[in-house]
Design goal:
The complex is a heterodimer of chains A (110) and B (163). By secondary structure, chain A is of the alpha/beta class. In chain A, strand 6, helix 3 and strand 7 form a beta-alpha-beta unit. A 5-stranded mixed sheet of chain A has the order 1-2-4-6-7. In chain A, strands 3-5 form a two-stranded parallel sheet. Chain A is 31% helix and 24% strand. Chain B is of the alpha+beta class and 163 residues long. Chain B is built from 3 helices and 5 strands, in the order E-H-H-E-E-H-E-E. Chain B is globular. The two termini of chain B are 19 Å apart. Classes of the chains: A alpha/beta (110), B alpha+beta (163). The interface between A and B is medium-sized, with 28 and 34 residues.
Chain lengths: 110, 163
């Protein structure tokens, strides 16, 4: 599970580089995010623009990361692709997360 | 519409897609990829394809986690074109669903931020996206069947009448 992260001002941006957060990847996702959020930054914006599939295990893992951050820090989402968006809407989790339509760009170093 | 991936004896005059899948999350992922490609080749609309992928993922993951409880086993998936959609059947030799009844979790209308569920979404997604969901235990096997509409996917979270 590759997640690229970058501080952008007060915000920590984390972009998931793999195209699925499914049952086979959910635990890895959670463990990698646990390391990513050791860096400071609030909110943490999770960029899902490369993720084309997320099942209920993946959704549970995203919720788990939100809980790891709470109550001091927030997890926000960005760049939901259609299938991922559908999962958040159907489960009404779209009401729980702040969801940004545009994903923040990870800037090249320098 | 014909779903073609592996030749098989036509059932009821229509060909379908049959897969035997090991009870393992990576095997489930590969099977979903096969299904996605087959549906893409058949010009199944994006909405139906993503609904199919989601429902099948949830059903197969349940089999891996609950029917086989992480142990070895396999499941047979059969998809077949039917008027207005795709008929799906999936069987496994794992433990029966407790009480012989499919879980029917009520979706949260609102969630409290300090009390968010991390699970229980699977059956809700299955029940929302699939129609005519039926479960039976037969000859020591679980058999789950359902229908996925291609003409009008149900996204509102309500039930589709007149199926």
């Amino acid at each position: 599970m590759e997640i690229v992260s970058q501080a952008q001002g007060p915000v920590l941006v984390a972009q998931v580089m793999t195209d699925r957060i499914d049952a086979a990847a959910a635990i890895q996702f959670k463990e990698t995010m646990r390391k990513v959020i050791e860096a400071p930054g609030n909110p943490v914006i999770l960029d899902l623009s490369r993720v084309h599939f997320l099942d209920s295990s993946g959704l549970g893992a995203v919720v788990a990361v939100m809980k790891l951050l709470a109550p001091q820090r927030r997890l926000e989402l960005a760049g939901l692709t259609p299938t991922v968006d559908k999962v958040f809407r159907l489960t009404r989790m779209d009401k729980v997360f702040v969801i940004h339509a545009e994903s923040p760009r990870i800037r090249a170093a320098g | 519409m014909t779903i073609v991936a592996r030749p098989e004896t036509p059932a009821g005059g229509q060909s379908g897609l049959s897969l035997t899948i090991a009870s393992d999350p990576l095997a489930v992922r590969n099977a979903l990829e096969t299904v996605r490609c087959a549906l893409q080749m058949d010009d199944v609309p994006d909405d139906t394809r993503s609904a199919a992928e989601l429902v099948l993922a949830e059903v197969m993951n349940n089999i891996v986690e609950h029917a086989y409880r992480g142990g070895s086993g396999d499941m047979d998936l059969h998809l077949r074109a039917a008027p207005g959609g795709i008929r799906c059947e999936i069987t496994d030799s794992g433990a029966p669903i407790p009480g012989g009844l499919l879980p029917d979790p009520a979706p949260g209308q609102t969630y409290r931020p300090d009390d968010l569920p991390e699970g229980g979404f699977g059956w809700f997604l299955i029940r929302t996206l699939a129609q005519d969901l039926q479960y039976r235990r037969e000859h020591g096997r679980n058999c789950l069947s359902f229908f996925l509409r291609t003409d009008n996917t149900n996204e509102a979270g309500g039930t589709v009448a007149g199926q």
